[in-house]
Design a protein that fits this description.
- By secondary structure, the protein is mainly α.
- Helix content is about 75%, strand content about 0%.
- It has a single domain, classed as Tetracycline Repressor, domain 2, CATH 1.10.357.
- The protein has twelve helices and no strands.
- This is TetR/AcrR family transcriptional regulator.
- Pfam families: TetR_N.
């Protein structure tokens, strides 16, 4: 590679890194604003002001409120799935998978208040369309119904049962001080709704879980750090 080619390659990489940092700053600002105002609010002006960015620069990355929301939801889903799904996949039993995934999510909400604030603002159609984790949940619910681990029902019904309950639980945790075993109580009720017997549901919500710790460069940790005085 010639010196000219090396220079061009270096400039390309630097430009790509700068673009990624700018996009990350916008997503961090959007997470804060969405958590405060909700996904249906017109937040672009607030995000631009919080990020300290020109309007023209913003539109190089996102064109609409909906694209911005999808970006935030996608970033959060990616980070959580990297931690949660490997734990979920340690279990062959679909009921254990659903129980562990749901508990890990609710404990993450407890540990990261900004996540709870964001999820508590999501409406069901938005959550279903934007949160990547819903597809992974559908995978395990579908398997559980097919294997007769869960009561016979439409997969859509099972998804709505679980996601609706988890979003309400996220909202409750974001707004109230609740007992430490609240995530387990919620997931126990979800399992009963899916047709799991009470004693089996109690066993599933007692399975050991690792602690959810996001890396320092996660969007939640970056945003929380930026928000500290």
């Amino acid at each position: 590679m010639t010196n000219t080619e090396l220079t061009v390659d270096h400039r390309t990489r630097v430009a790509a890194q700068r673009r990624e940092r700018t996009r990350a700053r916008l997503l961090e600002s959007a997470l804060q604003v969405f958590a405060e105002k909700g996904p249906e609010a017109a937040v672009i002006d607030d995000v631009i002001a919080l990020a300290g960015m020109a309007r023209g620069s913003f539109y190089n990355y996102f064109r609409t409120n909906e694209e911005l929301l999808a970006g935030v939801a996608g970033a959060l889903s990616d980070e959580l799935l990297r931690l949660i799904d490997p734990v979920v996949q340690l279990h062959a039993d679909p009921a254990a998978r659903v129980a562990c995934g749901a508990r890990l999510l609710l404990h993450a909400v407890r540990g990261y208040p900004l996540l709870g604030a964001f999820l508590s603002r999501l409406k069901l159609p938005v959550a279903d369309g934007q949160l990547i984790g819903v597809a992974f949940l559908a995978r395990d619910l579908d398997a559980g119904i097919a294997q007769q681990r869960f009561a016979p029902m439409l997969v859509r019904v099972a998804i709505d049962l679980v996601t609706g309950t988890l979003l309400c639980a996220a909202q409750s945790q974001a707004r109230e001080t609740l007992p430490a075993n609240y995530p387990e109580a919620v997931v126990h009720a979800v399992l009963l709704g899916l047709g799991i017997p009470a004693d089996e549901a109690a066993r599933l919500v007692a399975l050991p879980l690792p602690k959810i710790v996001l890396p320092d460069n996660s969007i939640l940790n970056r945003t929380a750090a930026a928000d500290r005085p």
